[in-house]
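ingest -> validate -> predict -> emit
validate: passed (alphabet ok, no gaps, 179 aa)
predict: started
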Amino acid sequence: KKIAGLVAIIYMLVLVLCVTMFQGICFGVQFAFRDEGLLFAEHVTITENEKLQGMKTNAETAATLESLTAFMKENGYYGNEALFFGHIPMVSYACEMPCAVSHTWPSLASYPTSQYREELAAVEGKPVVVYEATYYGDLLRKDASEVSSVKESLLMEFMRERNYYEVYRNEKYVVCVAQ
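emit:
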């Protein structure tokens, strides 16, 4: 009876392990390290960014990222300190731009609003601001009632108080600098 019980426990553990592995593999194939729509779109290889060269993505992502990279280089912003906002944390890496606060993805719920407020207040100088156009629109002209989060409002206030203006926009990214 003891052996039968031990065999049943081992059988259950193996079954749980197999199901977990199956779910992990299915998740990885569908979602891990994939751009939205990549499974159904033509693969395009990024060529105009040294850090991301060879990365496969969809055509829209490649075009907007390469355009942003070219703009940053041509205008001397590449490598400067910056603030990022939205689902674009990789821009810091792609454009070799250190973040002016402790987090390159401050819009995430795991980054406390109070910490973002404190860090924005402590920012010295005038870092470049890069944010996601598709979700946040025009932060320099948007009315406070149109804001979707406190963090978005904090960044809007930061840019307005320091006289930022838009210098670049494409379908995905907006770049603002201070006067």
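The CA atoms of residues 64 and 170 lie 7 Å apart.
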